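worker-03 picked up job from queue 'complexes'. Input manifest follows; three sequence lines, order preserved.
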Amino acid sequence: MEVKVRPFDCWNDFKNYRMNYYKEYLEAKDKGGIRWAGSAWSFDPVPQGLGEDVYPLTGEPYGATAAFFKDFSMRALETIERKGAARDLCGYMRNYWGSVAMDRYLLADGSEIEPFPKPDFNFTIHICCSHAKWYHYAAELEGGVPTYAVDISVGPGYTLDDKKIEYVVRQLEDAITWMEKVTGREYDDELLIKAVENEAKSMTLWAKICKLNQAKPAPMEEKSMFSFYVLTLIRRSDERVVKLYEQLYREVENRVKKGIGALTYEQFRFVTDNPPPWPFLKVYRYLEQNYGAVSVGSIYTFGLGAAWLGMDEKGENWIWEPAPTPEEAGFEIHDRRSALWWTALFNLKYRASWQHEYSHWVRKQETYQMVKDWHTDAIIMHLNRGCELWNMSTLEVRDYLVNKGIPVATYEGNMADPREFDEARTFNVIDSFMQSLGIEKLT
Amino acid sequence: MVTVDELPEMKKFIEWFENRHEYAKKWKEKTGGKVVGYYCTYMPEEIMYAAGILPVRILGSHEPESITRPYLHDMYCPFCHDTLAQALQGRYDYLEGVTIAQSCLHMRQSYFSFADRVENIEWSYYLPFPHGVNNPHAGDFARHEFEKFKKAVEEWTGKEITDSDLDNAIEVYNRNRELLTKMFELRKADEPLITGLHAMYIVVSSQLVDKAEHNQVLESFLEKIENGQVENDREIGTRLMLIGSEDYDEELFKLIEYGMSYPATFVFEENCTGSRYFWGLVENNGDRLMALAKRYVYRVPCPAKDWARGDFFGRRRFQFIEDVIRDWNIEAVIIAQMKFCDPHELDIPSLREMLDKMGVRHLHLELDLTQPVGQFRTRVEAMIEAMGEEDLFI
Amino acid sequence: MAVAGIDVGTKLTKVVIMDEDKNILAYVIERTGTDHKKSSEEAFEKAVEKAGLKREDIKKTIATGFGKISAPFADDEVTQVIAAGRGAYYVKPTARTVIEVGAEESRAIQLDDNGNVKDFSLADKCAAGAGSFVDAMIRYLEVTPDEFGQLALQATRAIPMNAQCVVFAESEVVSLLHSNVPKAEISRAIHDAIADRVAAIARRIEIKDDVLLIGGLANDIGFIDAMKRELGKDVHVPENYPPELVPAIGAALSAL
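worker-03 finished. Artifact:
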């Protein structure tokens, strides 16, 4: 059945925010501002207490942008490999290091700037084997930029207790003292409080938007979602980001009401799991154009940018319901400690991507429930050689879903290394999968 | 006079190394106790030992296999595949439990599949050991997790772990650490009697048997070495240090120490089947769990946990390596990294730079399940040969 | 009425001519060479002639392997997985697991009782090129393909060899040759390593009886033996047709 489609009204607003983001970071020093770099998983509200002119550069989205511009990516990857970096390391990280090592900075439109704008400090977290070491080595390449990493490996949210939160909060308190020392600025707790509240708003709003995609026809396809979700990863504690998500929420809600879909012909719905191969997003286009197949979401876009209830208290079932904001949870944020306590609790408990590192079971339930709740026909899994964290449990999940009768296709690739993706082979997998399910090509 | 290889103690270590499963099965028969397999040397074995459990380190067998491929991705390291393969083949059929102290992602994967898929496993425990071992709050956090772990062990075994049980376990384990350290110290000698192969058998066997028993044999072994009852039967040649991932592949040691045209001897192994396992004692000062937490948090870190934090901009492991190179008079370093081991790969460029600055030759070998012996021989020989050439011109 | 199936592979081009009652009238297997279009055209002509037909007698042609790019005269194409599945069910209706090892690509397919593809898995990047690897090893050992397979059966011991990475495996073979290890044992080690690698792909799907081995490597007696050992079960090969022909048969069936 043919459905109505139309471009998103807020598309350009999101695009412009992202374009400006990289420029703002670049130009921060011109106005005496502060630049910091770190993983997109970092406690982004914390450096905001240093002032209103503090600009982050988060590594994973930067790495993805680099990968998208294949020529830049190839030069970056080869540069860092010559310095001895192994090819099986994180794809984002190698693009980032390569960019630093080449001393070239990439803007979101693909233009290159020389030199690479060094941050005043690196501030990151550590959950996989690479995060903190990523910035440690980057700092060495940058000639010794001060670096601080917060260990968040306390276990899944449903096992959270005060001591675990306390461990993270104490590190954040130390980080603030350290940031004051490194930047020579006095820390403003009011700004922190505001940022922490914004973070919660951005992430719960994005969860609510994701949920709207359960509708048939799906109002969003995943390629658009990549452009939307990324703001939760580049600067979720910014009030402008909250406003954009409010705007998007209204628009998607309206699309659902009016039956506006992402594809003219939605004959097949699926979800994916991992970060996509950024240089080859045409995989999604291929599925849409040939099979009317729409990706309605992924563990990646939902799990990384949004806040969800997640595993129930017993650790048995996964609940894809938006997490509460501090207001909804009745949590009063009134000073530095309560603000840090909230952001630690909120991320440790509700950030889906901080849950499934601790057992196959969590990832199995998370994926199974997504397939069900978003009313999909199948899952297409990306065996992503570029990220061993996201690739955790994928084969066990495959086995679990196949046994549950859910059709699963897997293709191998790399989110950020164009050399590790075989286009013909991937299309072959897709065709074989679709043909085996009896899905005809659109004529 | 006898050689190290002729000592009955050495034969015992090798026997334990080779017949690890038989040892554990016999131990069970003898004691009626439970055996728990553990992944990663951050596991506070003392807590299990105090409960009367025999903790054994999960290791592989260096045999090709295909049975883990449905569960673990190919880009995960050979060690995690190999260890899981042992379990899927039923070689760990005597274990009641399996546990892991949070470490790298690869081992975690292997552990989860192990715990889920091996039928004889009735108890499993994921211990969220901190990653931030370079930060001052990690000790408190580790203590908290150790307390929960202790409770879980008590609930499972039905045995209360008393302070005196813990004291005893700490004493036995500390004794083993002292003896192993002493064994390494002896290798500072100009003509060390203990090779890398010997040391590997000794350290790895200590991860597989009752530590009290290991202590007895090791004490007797060291006594004989120190009393001059043992003679050297081989040329020492180039003094090598091994740096890297877990390495208990006999072939590699045999090749480098016994199979090359140029003599060479490992005098130090900086890995978790070597010094990283036992270096550093537990300072038991009343709060036993805190003492354990501090020992494990502040030991020489695995690269997975070693990173800059705030005012500390270094790697504690590198500082340790620097000291060893000086004190053990190391001439060249073999960096033996398990294929796909990200934490090591993340350190290697900076490690090479440090070694270059120190003027120490180094060679990077990538370990797989089995090793291309001929290729490795050529590369190691070439390195040693080049060192000789340099001497000509100095 | 007759139809055709054509499978253009990296090494060989296979063509099957079939009548409407699914009888195979003729088939040819030719070297692919560098000019795919030319070799597919020639192979096709040859097959039609062999069937005693004229080109216009062929009502529909379905391509697989490299597909229409290499055989532009085909009416449509079908993926290798589907073609191999259909072909396998045709040559052995009791087959539920199909393992195909070609020059560059290996795959495992699970069939349901009606011969439909239920699940499949392809070789990962590291494990690709099993067939080409064997070709290279045959050259190293200076034997014929037949001798290579026979040699493995004569080995008196199994030498463990790296199974998951061709590059590593190759350097191990060189080491063994330099150490004067008998060729029979090296051949056995290579076969075991390949079987191990192929079994790893197969294990990602449920391995149900009967297991049918197809593709070029299924001609190698040493490999069949190694697969039996590795999977711990009986392994079949097509009885009436060459094992590498199966996907072309499947393509022809798809044209009906």
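worker-03 released lock.
Chain C has eight helices and nine strands.
The CA atoms of residues 95 and 210 of chain C lie 5 Å apart.
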